[in-house]
Write a structure and sequence with these properties.
163 residues, mainly alpha, two-stranded parallel sheet, 5% strand, extended
Length: 163
């Protein structure tokens, strides 16, 4: 099953999008929906439009849809909004490609992934629990990133190129 297992199954368990559920109906702060059901017509429009609710600090939204065809979703919106368009529709395999790259990089192990998953699925967990579970991996990644930036800066300085 690999380090992260079946990513779509785990994402769908984390935040399922169903019309009228707590993640779709009243969450102005929601920035993402993971869709695992067929959406059509007004149901598609109402469910996905809820992401557009304003909230302080919210400047973008994401939809990861495991079921629906983007053209079907666009057709549903065009029924109500003639100028509707889809932006940044991506290849769904990009999620799996990224997962493979991250798995291969070795910044985390099975224990660390499972620790984060347990916190995410624990309804009594606090934000501090999640921060604690992520901290070792985050520190490792940030340290690696800073070292790469320093190497780039040094290489550019040797070549006389502005940073």
């Amino acid at each position: 099953m690999g380090v992260m297992g079946d990513i779509s199954r785990k994402l769908r368990r984390l935040h399922r999008t169903h019309p009228g559920d707590r993640f779709g109906k009243n969450s102005a702060f929601s920035v993402r929906h993971y869709v695992d059901k067929r959406l059509a017509g007004i149901t598609a429009v109402q469910t996905l439009s809820r992401l557009n609710r304003a909230y302080p600090g919210k400047d973008t939204t994401y939809v990861v849809d495991f079921v629906n065809d983007p053209e079907d979703i666009l057709a549903a919106f065009k029924t109500y909004y003639e100028t509707a368009e889809l932006a940044d529709v991506t290849d769904p395999h990009l999620v799996f490609d990224l997962r493979m790259k991250l798995d291969a990089a070795g910044f985390y192990d099975d224990f660390e992934v499972n620790r984060v998953v347990e916190v995410e699925f624990n309804p009594k967990a606090k934000q501090s629990d999640l921060a604690g579970a992520l901290e070792p991996v985050m520190s490792r990644l940030l340290s690696h990133y800073k070292a790469a930036q320093d190497r780039l800066k040094s290489a550019k300085a040797k070549l006389g190129s502005p940073v």
